[in-house]
Amino acid sequence: MVGTSAALIAILAQFINPPVRGKLLAFDVISPDKARITWEVRRQPDQDVVCALRAQDFYRGDVAYALIPLPADGDDYLQTSFTLNTNDEAFTVEVLACVEEGELLPASGLQFPPGATAPSQPLPAIVPTVTNQTLVAPMVESNEFAK
Q1: Cβ distance 97 to 105 under 8 Å?
Q2: Beta-sheet strand order (sheet of 49-56)
Q3: What is the reported pTM?
Q4: CA 96, CA 80: separation in Å to the nearest integer?
Q5: Is residue 32 in a domain?
Q6: Maximum distance among all alpha carbons in the chain?
Q7: What is the rounded distance in angstroms from the CA atom of residue 81 to the CA atom of residue 69?
Q8: Kind and range of the H or E element at 27?
Q9: 52-100 pLDDT per residue, tens
Q10: What's the structural domain count of the chain?
Q11: What is the structure's pLDDT at 9?
Q12: Which DSSP category does 126 fall into?
């Protein structure tokens, strides 16, 4: 009984206080083909993280999608911004998820309208090319983006 209770407490702790948390702080539609997003990430100081960002149009079709690697930098809090290239004017922009590298992203697959693909993004962003597949956070390489 004690072992079961301890396991249940550990599982609940993961849901109540997940090891990685991403939160949208603001977004701004700069132009019909660009949207700037600012978000925060809480993580372990030595944890490499990947965040999935998405912009959608008025009809909730995807107009941008990017995976942003955030290498560990010794801090447990990071506030960062990124400008997404969009296929059309964004109506909403969101942080779908932030996870440790190599973990499954709980976000749904890409939802671009028929015939549309994800626009290219500036580095360090990674643009997935497969639709409706499970996305796994890629390995994070050290870069100057998060600094």
Answers
A1: yes
A2: 62-70, 49-56, 92-100
A3: 0.77
A4: 15
A5: yes
A6: 59
A7: 12
A8: strand 21-31
A9: 999 999 999 999 999 999 999 999 999 999 999 999 999 999 999 999 9
A10: 1
A11: 53
A12: B
Do residues 82 and 50 lie in contact, with contact meaning Cβ atoms separated by under 8 Å?
Answer: no
Name residue 123's amino acid. Answer: L
Give the tokens for residue 76.
């447990």
Q: Report residue 145 as tokens.
A: 């983006």
Q: How far apart are CA 54 and CA 62, in angstroms?
A: 7
Domain assignment present for 106: yes
Q: What is the CATH number of the domain that holds 84?
A: 2.60.40
Question: Residue 109 is part of which domain span?
Answer: 19-147
The span from the CA of 34 to the CA of 105, in Å, is 24
Which of 64, 129, 67, 146 has its CA nearest to residue 104? 67
Amino acid found at 136? V
The whole-angstrom separation of Cα 108 and Cα 54 is 11
7 domain-assigned: no
| β partners of residue 145 | none
Residue 17 buriedness (CB in 10 A; 0-12 / 13-18 / 19+): exposed
Note whether residue 9 is domain-resident.
Answer: no
The closest of 49, 36, 60, 65 to 128, measured between CA atoms, is 65
Tokens found for residue 53 = 């960002």
DSSP code of residue 104: B
